[in-house]
Amino acid sequence: MGAGRVFAYGAAAGLIGDLLLGDPRRGHPVAVFGRAAGAVERVLWRDHHGWGALHTTVCAGGAVALGSLAARAVRASTVASVALTAAATWAVVGGTSLAREARTIGSALGAGDVEAARARLPHLCGRDPQALDADGMARAVVESVAENTSDAVVGALVWGAVGGVPGLLGFRAVNTLDAMVGHKSARYRRYGWASARLDDLAGWPGARLTAVLAVLAGPDPRGAVRAWRADAAQHPSPNAGPVEASFAGALGVRLGGTLSYGGRVEHRPVLNTPGRAVGTQDVERAVRLSKRVTWLALGACAGARLLKSAWSSRRGN
């Protein structure tokens, strides 16, 4: 069996595993990586770009190397290769947990329990829940679902199609490092620069594919294209912009505006200005759109990898 089929079967099995099992409560591989990266940081941290770049190289390079060694160890067995790809896919994607957290908050908001929603919001995103009313929390959830569809699912599938198991693990490592040290706090402004920039580069193709698929899978394709073209570039993140704008247009809602993180207020541009304000019912709509995008992404990435393998085989002959 060629590499294309190994990835296609393994990635499909991994996504089904995520659908059925979700994330483990303890001992998640990403959490294990996070603890290891934290240990490396305690040794290397200096308020310096170069030391931060070394931290990124050691942690992300280590994940890629581990994936390469594992893939090489099982390459003689098709079954083992598919199983390894499935396990790696399950470990790095987080679509089921994303949907579960979003729906938990949406259910609390639907029941009028704003305090329960506020208590749960930090499990999904870094917004200050006390600064948000019910509609503000619903907007935060929809934005997080959109962004994390790219970061937690589609981006990983793209790099899995490109690089197999090393690509899957490498993308998740880079994304996790960005979450840990890539923000603009006093401690990480220099040290986390390399992780943040590498995450921007790694996330670029997955974000564009997510935006395209949101156009195709959403209830308002024209609105999604219009919002993407008009508003994506105004977002401070080069990757969140296209994803959130296309989701906003597809769902017919307005995203962006004033946000609060850790006591710091940000005024971001509004995405899809003609849309209506986000309501509680839009949480479930966003989750459903995210799921459709996920399965379309699997088809696109598996298909691309199969075509690449077929082309390589023809050239070899």
Description:
Helices cover 73% and strands 5% of the residues. The chain has a two-stranded antiparallel ribbon. It is mainly alpha-helical. The relative contact order is 0.14. The chain has eleven helices and two strands; from the N terminus they run H-H-H-H-H-H-H-H-H-H-E-E-H. Strand 1 (255-261) and strand 2 form a beta hairpin. It has helices spanning 3-21, 29-44, 49-74, 78-92, 95-110, 114-120, 134-181, 193-217, 221-231, 240-251, 281-316; strands at residues 255-261, 264-271.
Largest beta sheet: strand ordering: 1-2
Tell me the total number of β-strands.
2
**Broad shape:** globular
Give a quick account of the main beta sheet: strands, pairing sense, barrel closure.
2 strands, antiparallel
Number of helical elements: 11
Ends distance: 16 Å
Helix content range: over 70%
Radius of gyration: 20 Å
- Ranges where pLDDT stays below 50 over 5 or more residues in a row are none
Mean pLDDT across every amino acid position: 93
Tell me the structural class: mainly alpha
Strand content: under 5%
Query: From N to C, what is the helix and strand string?
Result: HHHHHHHHHHEEH
Topology (SSEs and partners):
Blueprint: H1 3-21, H2 29-44, H3 49-74, H4 78-92, H5 95-110, H6 114-120, H7 134-181, H8 193-217, H9 221-231, H10 240-251, E1 255-261, E2 264-271, H11 281-316
Antiparallel strand pairs: 1-2
Helix pairs in contact: 1-4, 1-7, 1-11, 2-3, 2-7, 3-7, 4-7, 5-6, 5-7, 5-11, 7-8, 7-10, 7-11, 8-9, 8-10, 8-11, 9-10
